[in-house]
């Protein structure tokens, strides 16, 4: 456990790629500035939403540096350092620490279906580097989850400080929170669960959908803190409907996010393989879906 004070909405930021496949630095800067203007508190860089698995280690380091140079001190910076190769995870974490990141976010070792003892050993080695660690529970992508009891053990490791929850079992989610609430700051990873986790005491959200609708995710958090449950409900319903639009789009989540941004006239760039970008017809379809959601809520479209 490591005491720190991350709060609010941390955007799991996209990585904009141009048509040649390179990182579009201009689009990235414009996007991060937009997120800050909407009230986003921090950025999780090179996570799943950032398509970390499509980038080389050198590219990820360059991305870390680019964002640190522009936003250190302006936003909480959390480096997604998971990799198929554990040595690369350690290398990326050391690098993020060296350039001033506030923390790192790590999954259990991916693909290899590690045992609880192996997960604990791997997380322990990352934590020894000295950068506050956000555990990331996403069993749907990793193949194994962090059980409530294992998370409680991990929470006792020095420098393990936070926990991103992307499991769908609300009973296990609740048990994990109650076992570790005095040791970890909890963040909702699935936006439809945001208000539910806030009601249990979560510190905020690590949000993918905030790349499209940062104001609504921020408003949900702020309204909950202010005790305005009607406003929480109003914004949570928009988030829920956008999430359903994403889940039913036929696209990967991250291709959807970039298509949704394009539909709003925003430059999120394109995706890298294995993902397939939305064609113009799909972008138009998504745009109409977004317009309907906001018209029903009587709110202006995101800018």
TrEMBL record:
Keyword annotations: Lyase
Keyword Lyase attributed: yes
Active site: 136 (proton donor/acceptor), 164 (schiff-base intermediate with substrate)
InterPro entries membership: Aldolase_TIM (IPR013785), DapA-like (IPR002220)
A GO MF term: 4-hydroxy-tetrahydrodipicolinate synthase activity
Binding annotation for pyruvate: 49, 206
Keyword Lyase: yes
Family: Belongs to the DapA family.
Protein name as it appears in the record: Dihydrodipicolinate synthase
Provenance organism: Advenella kashmirensis W13003
């Amino acid at each position: 456990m490591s005491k720190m004070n991350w709060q609010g909405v941390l955007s799991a930021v996209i990585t904009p790629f141009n048509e040649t496949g390179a990182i579009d630095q201009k689009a990235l800067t414009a996007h991060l500035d937009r997120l800050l203007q909407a009230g986003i508190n921090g950025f999780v860089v090179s996570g799943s939403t950032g398509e970390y698995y499509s980038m080389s280690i050198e590219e990820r380091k360059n991305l870390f540096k680019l964002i640190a140079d522009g936003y250190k001190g302006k936003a909480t910076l959390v480096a997604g350092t998971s990799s198929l190769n554990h040595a690369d995870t350690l290398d990326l974490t050391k690098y993020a620490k060296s350039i001033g990141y506030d923390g790192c976010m790590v999954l259990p070792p991916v693909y290899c279906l590690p045992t609880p003892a192996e997960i604990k050993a791997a997380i322990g080695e990352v934590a020894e580097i000295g950068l506050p660690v956000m555990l990331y529970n996403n069993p749907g992508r990793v193949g194994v989850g962090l059980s409530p009891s294992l998370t409680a053990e991990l929470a006792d490791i020095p420098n393990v400080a936070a926990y991103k929850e992307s499991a769908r079992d609300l009973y296990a989610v609740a048990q994990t929170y109650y076992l570790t609430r005095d040791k970890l700051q909890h963040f909702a990873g699935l936006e439809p669960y945001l208000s539910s986790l806030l009601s249990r005491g979560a510190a905020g959200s690590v949000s993918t959908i905030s790349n499209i609708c940062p104001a609504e995710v921020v408003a949900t958090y702020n309204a909950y803190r202010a005790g305005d449950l009607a406003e929480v409900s109003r914004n949570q319903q928009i988030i829920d409907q956008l999430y359903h639009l994403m889940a039913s789009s036929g696209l990967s989540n991250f291709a959807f996010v970039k298509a949704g941004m394009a539909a709003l006239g925003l430059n999120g760039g394109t995706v890298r393989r294995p993902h397939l970008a939305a064609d113009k017809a799909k972008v138009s379809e998504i745009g109409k879906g977004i317009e309907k959601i906001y018209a029903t809520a009587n709110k202006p479209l995101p800018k």
